[in-house]
Amino acid sequence: MLRVTRPVFRPCVIVPVFDHAATVADVAEGAAHHAEAVIVVDDGSRDGSGDAVRSAAGPAIEVLSFPENRGKGAAIAAGLRRAAERGFTHA
User: Fold this and answer.
1) What is the C-alpha separation between 84 and 91, in angstroms, rounded?
2) Helix H segments across the chain?
3) Phi and psi, residue 7, nearest 5°
4) Residue 5 has what DSSP assignment?
5) CA torsion angle 12 13 16 22 (round to 10)
6) Average pLDDT for residues 32-53, to the nearest whole number?
7) pTM score of the predicted model
């Protein structure tokens, strides 16, 4: 009999953020209810967005930070690289 193996489906959520300290923690926590991991990429925020999400971050939430704004595309690319390093197949 021929056995068909299904590929592993291991999704995560990537949240790029720039100056959204008031909402980013709620967004990350909400996303954590729907995925194994949430990767928040603080793209050089000046309002403490990275700190806001770090203070609320549980074990499912990881925060990457850029010292200065690189743009949304660079933030998403960094999140995708980190997701791949951690073995996630989809974001």
Assistant:
1) 9
2) 24-32, 49-56, 72-85
3) -65, 150
4) P
5) -140
6) 95
7) 0.90
